[in-house]
């Protein structure tokens, strides 16, 4: 009997809701450590906001004037590198493992940071940001995959939410560091913030070396024993415990089933698999890929990075007489402290309500900023109202769309296309991040379109579109194993998904399918899994 069939045979679940072991503190901590990757991501977004506003930096890199063109390239080149890094990362994660890819990302990132720190001219700085971006691309795409694949389903949303929390902490740390070094009249003003990035890469790389690879990666490679070992370690249970046997069986059965629907025969076909199936079928790979990439696009369309990339410049423009660095710091603090709210709401209310109402809250706040600014943008009290609503906008983002978009992309892809699907979605986040970073200086620059607060009319309308989008297209994945999410997508539409409940049928129908495969095709597909481990 092929090993995969034997694994499925051994499992005798009497309740589909008991697929997973109870969550132990150790399991929780192991999963949460990976979230540290968010620090790197956030710090990189954050420190550039601060250093491009520093007098010393402007003097050294722009001869007293960092033009809109230069500024947009310095900020956005990282996102371009990250976009490319995220695309490649999906392949690497399937070939070498999720964990190894993240560790490689730390090394590439450290190289990029070294180049930036060595630079005192524009060219090297740009090159360094691009290389660091490649590393962040590996890390940001694969950490989500890693975390979603190892986390117990009951806390998966909260655990992936921790990743967003770390992103916000990274942005805040960058703000604090640049706030502290901004007045230094030496190159240390920007070199210190850049050098601190090594610490994050070191902690993440070393820490991950001690964590296990994901069981789902091993299943995809046909290494069932390794998968069992990893799962047992992650769940804090002996390998032969009923919990491990059942959870492993579900992962294997589901993978088998998905491989029957979307067989993958070579390198190109594994990529093409992401685009198979019809547009009207909400469980088709194509629909999942569109969902993941568009969700990340809409997350960027909320305009959040307008604040995190350019708030120092924007607040200076409002001319309230309060240090713009300090105001930016406030936005980053609110970003940090509002994120943990989502740990509870995402598991209690679910992903859909979070995204729908979060977008509504953001749209309202942004329209208030736009209207107040356009009507009386020079009045000091009105400016205070504007700044308050910018902060409220950040509150809504941080407690909803910030974590929500990452949580959902980790959950909607079936195993055969998961690594590439998550990578494509993350790449989409960075692509739109790049586009926004490029165009923003032209929208608000005093010598350019000079939209000032009116720019919030654009972001507010986008947030309204985010709300409609979430209502029509985002499914509810709360409380389901990744395998049950697959069934749910097949059996319900996004709008009916929150009512879908896992039943015994899913597991047994999958099991039946595998038995048939084994009987009809003498299990060749299962054996192929082991033999052709490097082709998928
Ligand atoms: C977004 C970033 C953003 C950050 C702010 C993340 O989820 O992808 O682009 O800067 O949240 O906290």
Query: Can you count the beta strands?
Result: 0
What can be said about the biggest beta sheet? none
Q: Could you report the average pLDDT, rounded to the nearest whole number?
A: 85
Radius of gyration: 24 Å
Overall body shape:
globular
The percent range for strand residues is under 5%
> What separation lies between the terminal Cα atoms?
23 Å
Put simply, the count of helices is 26
Q: What are the low-pLDDT stretches, counting only 5+ consecutive residues below 50?
A: 521-536
Helix content: over 70%
Bound molecules: beta-D-glucopyranose
Topology order in helix (H) and strand (E) letters: HHHHHHHHHHHHHHHHHHHHHHHHHH
* Structural class based on helices, strands and sheet pairing: mainly alpha
Characterize this entry briefly.
With 536 residues, the protein is mainly α. The chain is 76% helix and 0% strand.
Keywords:
mainly alpha, binds beta-D-glucopyranose, single chain
Helix and strand topology:
Layout: H1 3-10, H2 25-34, H3 37-51, H4 55-62, H5 68-95, H6 98-118, H7 122-150, H8 153-181, H9 188-195, H10 197-209, H11 215-220, H12 224-235, H13 242-261, H14 267-272, H15 285-301, H16 304-318, H17 324-338, H18 341-348, H19 351-376, H20 380-399, H21 401-411, H22 415-444, H23 455-473, H24 482-491, H25 504-521, H26 524-531
Helix pairs in contact: 1-13, 2-8, 3-7, 3-8, 3-10, 3-16, 5-6, 5-7, 5-22, 6-7, 6-9, 6-10, 7-8, 7-21, 7-22, 8-9, 8-17, 8-18, 8-21, 13-25, 15-21, 15-22, 15-23, 16-17, 16-20, 16-22, 17-20, 19-20, 19-21, 19-23, 20-21
Bound molecules: beta-D-glucopyranose (BGC).
Beta-D-glucopyranose (BGC) binds at residues 45, 164, 167-168, 171, 299, 304-305, 308, 335, 402, 429, 433.
């Amino acid at each position: 009997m092929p090993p995969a069939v034997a694994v499925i045979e051994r499992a005798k679940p009497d309740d589909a809701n008991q697929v997973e072991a109870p969550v132990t503190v150790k399991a929780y901590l192991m999963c949460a450590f990976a979230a540290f990757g968010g620090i790197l991501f956030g710090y990189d977004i954050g420190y550039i906001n601060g250093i491009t506003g520093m007098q010393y930096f402007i003097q050294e890199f722009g001869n007293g004037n960092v033009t809109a063109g230069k500024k947009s390239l310095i900020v956005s080149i990282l996102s371009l590198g990250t976009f490319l890094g995220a695309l490649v990362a999906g392949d690497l994660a399937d070939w070498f493992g999720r964990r190894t890819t993240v560790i490689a990302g730390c090394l590439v990132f450290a190289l990029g940071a070294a180049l930036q720190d060595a630079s005192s001219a524009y060219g090297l700085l740009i090159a360094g940001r691009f290389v660091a971006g490649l590393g962040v691309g590996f890390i940001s795409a694969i950490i989500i995959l890693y975390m979603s694949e190892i986390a117990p389903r009951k806390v998966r949303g909260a655990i992936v939410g921790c990743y967003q929390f770390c992103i916000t902490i990274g942005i805040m740390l960058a703000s604090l560091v640049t706030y502290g070094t901004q007045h230094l009249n030496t190159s240390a003003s920007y070199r210190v913030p850049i050098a601190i990035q090594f610490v994050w890469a070191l902690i993440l790389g070393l820490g991950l070396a001690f964590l296990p690879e994901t069981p789902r990666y091993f299943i995809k490679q046909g290494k069932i024993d390794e998968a069992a070992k990893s799962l047992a370690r992650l769940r804090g249970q002996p390998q032969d415990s009923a919990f491990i046997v059942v959870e492993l069986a579900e992962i294997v059965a589901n993978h088998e089933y998905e491989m029957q629907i979307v067989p993958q025969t070579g390198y190109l076909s594994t990529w093409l698999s992401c685009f198979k199936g019809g547009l009207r079928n909400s469980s088709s790979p194509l629909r999942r890929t569109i969902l993941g990439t568009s969700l990340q696009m809409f997350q960027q369309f909320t305009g959040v990075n307008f604040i995190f990339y350019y708030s120092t410049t924007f607040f200076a423009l409002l001319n309230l007489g309060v240090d713009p660095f300090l105001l930016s710091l406030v936005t980053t603090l609110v970003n940090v402290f509002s994120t943990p709210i989502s740990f509870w709401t995402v598991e209690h209310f679910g992903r859909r309500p979070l995204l729908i109402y979060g977008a509504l809250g953001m749209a309202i706040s942004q329209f208030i900023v736009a209207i107040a600014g356009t009507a009386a943008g020079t009045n000091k009290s009105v400016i205070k109202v504007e700044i308050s609503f910018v902060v409220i906008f950040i509150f809504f983002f941080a407690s909803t769309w910030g974590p929500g978009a990452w949580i959902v992309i980790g959950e909607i892809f079936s195993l055969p296309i998961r690594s590439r699907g998550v990578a494509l979605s993350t790449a989409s986040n960075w692509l739109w991040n790049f586009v926004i970073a490029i165009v923003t200086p032209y929208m608000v620059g005093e010598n350019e379109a000079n939209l000032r607060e009116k720019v919030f009319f654009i972001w507010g309308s986008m947030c309204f579109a985010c709300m409609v989008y979430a209502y029509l297209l985002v499914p509810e994945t709360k409380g389901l194993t990744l395998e049950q999410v697959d069934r749910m997508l097949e059996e319900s539409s996004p709008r009916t998904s929150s009512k879908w409940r896992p039943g015994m049928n899913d597991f047994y129908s999958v099991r039946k399918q595998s038995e048939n495969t084994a009987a009809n095709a003498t299990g060749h597909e299962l054996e192929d899994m082991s033999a052709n481990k490097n082709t998928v």
